[in-house]
Amino acid sequence: MSALVMPGASDKLTFLLSLVPYLMDRDSISVTDVADHFGVAPQLVRDAVSLIAVSGVPGESRQYQHGDLFDIHWEEFETNDTIALTHLVAIDDSPRFSAREAAALIAGLQYLSSLPENADSEAIASLMAKLTRSASAAPTQVAVARTDSGTAITIIQSAVRDGVQVEFDYLNARGTQEKRRVDPWRVESVDRDWYLRGWCHLRGAIRTFRLDRMSDLQTTTLPTTPRPDDVVLPENLFEGSASDLDVVVELPISAVPLLADFSPQRAETDSGLPAEQVRLTVRVAHYHGLKRLVSGLAGVVTVVGPAEARKAVRDWAGAGVQAYDEAPDWATGDDNAPPVGGIR
């Protein structure tokens, strides 16, 4: 980049205002690198740094004492032509993230960097570095644990980056395995489960797939098709279909938002229900899908009906209990037994 000539005082002031935060974001940097970045002559950078070193904010005495001024590593500056700020003023008094706040934000950014739509994570890495440097104290070292679906996420990231479709064998909720070819659009998580959302070429529609039900996942050489203008990815992770089954569940009113993805409807708050309880009708693709709902909200959701739904959940729970030496009566399949866990 060719050097620019600063014609007036206003341009020099603009340069100074940009230079200070630029230097703050770096432990040390050569005069030449700064000059190349701003497109100015190296001597202009040296003059600006010398001016910064005698600038500051007056303290309580209203006089410029040593602690009221910026300071630099003079030996490095004069000997090696390298700039390193060693004391900052005014800006240090502004609100800053605590070490705990910065650590929480960094953990969140690490999570975001694992999503396929953020395959180019250079900006996220830069932001994490800035949070580390600008916190009031060194943030606690945190790392978001990789999930069992980490390999699948990596493959999907590669497909999104290359603009190609993915192909895999998928075991659906009904226990049927099918070959699927999908334009990957987004990866989302619910608790510890990860899902791929995209355009399914087998169904010719938007579909959601659990990553742990995929096998033989691989990228293809087929390019993804442009998303039609009239195709909008729904906000809800799970979308109902005409073949879905109705299931009646009972739960505390405060827990109703946890079932948002199951399209709850027809709420009942009377019929002799305990206080603060509500009865809802939710929709599932298959009664076996209730296993995830009940296990994820153990002790919160009770399956009320129909009988086939109660039996599917009771058989699943009973099979687990039978692994212990002493099983309760309800685990033998007696449908008249009192409600236990998530079954009534």
Automatic annotation (TrEMBL):
Database matches in InterPro entries: CBASS_pafABC_assoc_protein, PafC-like, PafC_HTH, WCX_dom, WYL_dom
Domain WCX: 246-318
Stretches assigned to the WYL domain: 153-218
PafC HTH domain segment(s): 11-133
Pfam family, any one: WYL
Domain of life: Bacteria
Name by which UniProt lists this protein: WYL domain-containing protein
